[in-house]
Amino acid sequence: MAKVEMSKLFLNFEEECASTLRSVSRRISEITSSSENGGGGFGAAPSSSGSSGPGRARLIADAEAQLRGAKKKLSQMESELSSIDAKDRVVCQAKLRRHRADLVNLTRDLQRAKREGERSSLFGARNSSPSRQNRSDTGDFHMSAARATETLRTTGDRVHASRQLVNESEEIGVNIMGNMHEQRETLLSAQQKVKETSNLASEAGAVLKRMAWRALYNQCLLYGIIILLVVCIGLVLYFMYIK
Structural domain of residue 236, as residue ranges? Predict the structure, then answer.
């Protein structure tokens, strides 16, 4: 009963960690959007809404705090592994590894978003009033940046799809390992029963051998008695009629 409660506690920690990581992912998306909309770039007007300044800093601080909370939840999940059954521990370890990988990826994404925001702010400050001579170069730069951004997004989508495929493959492997563990337990139980049946068969064979020897002994004794009776009858007839 205690292990069931510990397993529920692990699941609660896992649910809170997953929720926190999803919230961090949304914060990173907001940070990226604020960087693209308010960061400016070449030829863009500086933002007056504050989304590229204090607002983005607040989002970054919030995301970093949530990452620290998710890391704490992962530590609590890891501390609960020793209290879970060996069969369920394999599944819980797979979940822990997956959430830890998500934490690492989100931390890297947050650092990348911070760098992009700083770079966008720097470009916006330097190029808030570009000259007409540089506007054509600015347009080319925007097109190159848009293509690079699209390439990065496509690559990120592919990486995300690959990570989902890996997670699904890992879950399938964990399920297979669980089934193999159950089959191993079944085989060990069957092996034990076979040993017990073999011992019973050996004991039954020994009893049958003793019964066979006893039956042979009784048969020989019966034949001896019959022979003795025949001899006695012969002697009686001999003394009564011949002599």
Answer: 214-243
Amino acid identity, position 66: Q
pTM of the prediction?
Answer: 0.47
Q: Phi-psi bin for 50: left (phi > 0), alpha (psi -120 to 50), beta?
A: left
In a domain, 122, yes or no: yes
d(CA 243, CA 235): 11
Cβ neighbors of 69 (< 8 A, separation 6 or more) are 20
Radius of gyration over every alpha carbon of the chain, rounded to an integer in angstroms: 43
| 199: in domain | no
Tell me which DSSP letter residue 129 carries.
S
Instruction: Give residue 63's pLDDT band: very low, low, confident or very high (50, 70, 90).
Output: confident
User: Do residues 12 and 94 make contact, with C-beta atoms less than 8 angstroms apart?
Assistant: no
